[in-house]
Design goal:
119 residues, mainly beta, six-stranded mixed beta sheet, four-stranded antiparallel beta sheet, 0% helix
Length: 119
Amino acid sequence: QVQFVESGGGLVQPGGSLRISCVASGFTFGATYMGWYRQFPGKERELVAHISPRGDLLNPVDSVKGRFTVARDNTKNMVYLQMSNLKPEDTAVYFCNRYWIPISSLSGWGRGTQVTVSS
């Protein structure tokens, strides 16, 4: 059974940094492209960035380029989203999952972790 558990969210001031984590299970993690997604209130989930099995950051959305990066540890089945220079418009619930388009085809979503950027 595919499962994801996100953690590390919280309240951070504009301009601050935060690293959120995700542990995955139920599939061959080390061979899988992984994605970070976020969901704004009342909106569909959107892809933020994804990472190749060997750790290459791929195609972050324009709004996070130069500010967010993704890393992974295949020995621990974990993927991380390092966020810097956070803005209020980054406030959302963040999820990890396998990378797939369309997002609607993905299953096994975790509860996500809330990131709130506010002074």
